[in-house]
């Protein structure tokens, strides 16, 4: 018995067909360790993929479902970013810039964008891990 369990499959089928009994969705901020291993070069970065999903969630559904999706994808991307599962600096810069799309509220928009742009700049210049004396 073959079942789709991926989040993107769930989202696409729910959008196109409505509720589908053959699709199981397990909402979680945890991503299995087996999916966090370094993959071959032809597979997309899981970190960047989650960040792209965050951006796409801005237009995917009506509120409040849209806000739930945005928060979920942000948490996943941030977890991957902070766990340092991605070592390619280009991907880390891309993900950091995509994460500027997230904000917890109107008063948080500028602060969040400032933080992620600064992080992207430090990664791009190789200064992410330097400590000022």
Brief synopsis:
The chain is mainly alpha-helical and 133 residues long. The chain contains five helices and no strands.
Walkthrough of the structure:
It is a single chain. This protein has 133 residues and is an all-alpha fold. The protein folds into two domains: 1-30, no CATH class; 35-124, no CATH class. It is built from five helices and no strands. It has helices at residues 7-17, 46-57, 65-82, 89-98, 109-124.
Write out key terms for the chains shown.
about 130 residues, mainly alpha, 2 domains, about 50% helix, flat
Please specify the SSE layout and strand pairing.
Layout: H1 7-17, H2 46-57, H3 65-82, H4 89-98, H5 109-124
Helix pairs in contact: 2-3, 2-4, 4-5
Strand fraction equals under 5%
Q: What proportion of the residues is helical, as a percent range?
A: 40-55%
Amino- and carboxy-terminal Cα gap: 60 Å
Overall average residue pLDDT: 77
Q: What are the low-pLDDT stretches, counting only 5+ consecutive residues below 50?
A: none
Q: Name the structural class.
A: mainly alpha
Please count the helical segments.
5
Number of strands: 0
Structural shape: flat
Radius of gyration: 16 Å
Number of discrete domains: 2
Major sheet details: none
Listing every helix as H and every strand as E from the N terminus to the C terminus, the arrangement reads: HHHHH
